[in-house]
Amino acid sequence: MSRTIRIGTRGSKLALWQAHHVADCLQQAGLATEIVIITTKGDVVLDRSLDKIGAKGVFTEELEVGLRTGHIDIAVHSAKDVQSSIPEDLELLAFMEREQVNDVVVSFHADLDLQRPGLVLGTSSTRRKAMLKRFLPNATTAEARGNLQTRLRKLEEGQYDALVLAYAGVHRMNYDGLIRHVLPETRFVPATGQGSVAIECARSLEPTLKAELHHALDHPATHLCLAAERAFLRTMEGGCSIPSFALATLDAAAGTVHLHGGLISLDGEQFIEEMQHAEASQVEALGIRVAESVLARGGQQILETIRLQRNESAA
Ligand SMILES: NCc1[nH]cc(CCC(=O)O)c1CC(=O)O
After folding, report:
1. How far is it, in rounded angstroms, from Cα 143 to Cα 171?
2. Active site residue 43
3. Distance between CA atoms of 185 and 218, rounded to whole angstroms?
4. pTM here?
5. Porphobilinogen deaminase N-terminal domain: from which residue to which, for each copy (predicted)?
6. Nearest CA to ligand 1 atom 11
7. Any idea what the CATH number is for the domain that residue 265 is in?
8. Of 107, 136, 155, 305, which cross-links 162 as Cys (Cβ 3.0–4.6 Å)?
9. 29-81 pLDDT tens trace
């Protein structure tokens, strides 16, 4: 019997659901597992939006320390929370099958009218705030930090009329009954990796165990798409807090990956997008090509403006 696999995870209900999902898959493959909860900066610093916390990897850094010290064997992350580049001594071993990728509007009001003037939507995502300014100008946004349960409590208290969230998290937490609108992914293009679960490990983990874990957990079509999206994000030099977006899809019949990527200005006025496709073997180059096109067509200026605004507000 091989040794027990120690699975590192944040302690939120969603993170624990994802960790148990990984544990179930590994147990079905005949591996014993243990779940180890590690609190991250993003879990405790809740009084600021993520771009104000500054440090990269607010939801991943402490888990990566656990991988280095040998405290855990694998770390389970929401793929969208993983930095565009990870430390050299670590690797992303697997991406699990992606859930429906859309952003959704969640509310206790069954008759929620998205076009209502003055509608208040809760989100702390720079991407969602910018897209709402562009596609739902009648609405305003309010900061909504904290885990899903905390945000739903604030929603019930009336701090906002509705929340904008990833379908994946809402569904995994069984809140589907509160979904009032599914936002079209052609306009509210999701964040890189949205909907997938990423498994990270130390490069030094035993190769046979790595192969066993990869075989039990990786979803090849999702992995291909996320490789394209992450190459896009890396080229954009973006962390979690720039309003970039990317969605790759696999055309299995044609053996090609299609990538829709872009950048939106914080005020929603500029929406620079690019759609290209490539052979499955060329997904990294596809991500780079799409990002370079977006940067060349005004994306670089958007990023410069954001950097200037953040430096001014930090001064
Ligand atoms: N840190 C935010 C975060 N990271 C992963 C999810 C949802 C699950 C996913 O997209 O895979 C969420 C919440 C949200 O965006 O609504």
Report:
1. 22
2. no
3. 24
4. 0.95
5. 5-204
6. 195
7. 3.30.160.40
8. 107
9. 999 999 999 988 877 776 766 566 555 677 888 999 999 999 999 999 999 99
